[in-house]
Amino acid sequence: MDYGFFNGQFISLDSASVNLEDRGYQFGDGIYEVTRVYNGKCFALDRHLARCRRSMRELRIPITYMDEELTAIHYDLIEKSGIKDGAIYFQFTRGTSKRTHAFPDQVIPNLSMTIHESTPNAEQQKNGMRCITCEDIRWLRCDIKSLNLLGNVLAKQAAHDKGVDGTIQFRKDNNLITEGSSSNFFIVKDGLIWTHPTDNYILKGVTRSILMEEIIPKLGYTVVEKAFTPEFALTADEAFATSTSLEVTPVIEIDGQKIGTGTPGPIAKALLEEYQKLVQKECY
Ligand code: PMP
């Protein structure tokens, strides 16, 4: 059963109500995380909690929960919902206060969380995604996982409108690819893996970090953290996207053009296999 948590109380989702003057509603003044649950266990939760703290620090939202508490709430949600395979969403907003742009005094952050059943899209992982490119119109602090997602929403909708699976964004000023609408993006060319460096233009994905720190070195591949153009991506041998939801999913087509052979590439497949082994080790 889908379930929620708001400021200390476990609740069913249809009974939850949030104050109309929560700054998340009025300004998108907050941050969020999505974590995956496999076999009733949280995967890579420590990395998500660390990123959550960083996002809060960058926005000067005070931290009101210890990691141990947040971890316990994750496990309570899993237990109360009975969900074994799913995703937990949590967000902190700056709090509730009469609407005014500057930070209000004496405001306490609101924490809300939901759990839903879901599993990775195995068919897409096997067959790959077809993507389009679109201009990255987001703000200049994409390293913060803020609630402001309109750029990402419009990018994803553009893919839906075109009947494809995803969107890869590029900055118009320099014609460089940044990332997907809710994923990091990689290409493979001449045996090297390329991806955008972690600066203010992309989110430092947990999945990206796991690949870079634990999986890619183990498999003996080399990564260059360097931005590239959409035209360069079209000449790649392989491409793939990573996120908590996608894990590692091959990208087989961009703007109607095949990448490599137009089928999932061997490096993307090897990375996915190794990622799933890590999930097995941590959660089963
Ligand atoms: N970039 C963006 C814009 C995202 O929304 C996400 C998904 N949270 C990612 C990258 C991938 O991050 P992660 O691997 O932590 O899910």
TrEMBL record:
GO cellular component terms given for this protein: cytosol
CDD domains assigned to the protein according to its UniProt record, in alphabetical order: D-AAT_like (cd01558)
PROSITE patterns, per the entry: AA_TRANSFER_CLASS_4 (PS00770)
Family listed: Belongs to the class-IV pyridoxal-phosphate-dependent aminotransferase family.
NCBIfam families the record matches: D_amino_aminoT
Subunit structure: Homodimer.
Its biological purpose: Acts on the D-isomers of alanine, leucine, aspartate, glutamate, aminobutyrate, norvaline and asparagine. The enzyme transfers an amino group from a substrate D-amino acid to the pyridoxal phosphate cofactor to form pyridoxamine and an alpha-keto acid in the first half-reaction.
Name this polypeptide is given: D-alanine aminotransferase
Source organism of the structure: Selenomonas ruminis
Phylogenetic placement of the source organism: Bacteria, Bacillati, Bacillota, Negativicutes, Selenomonadales
Annotated gene: dat
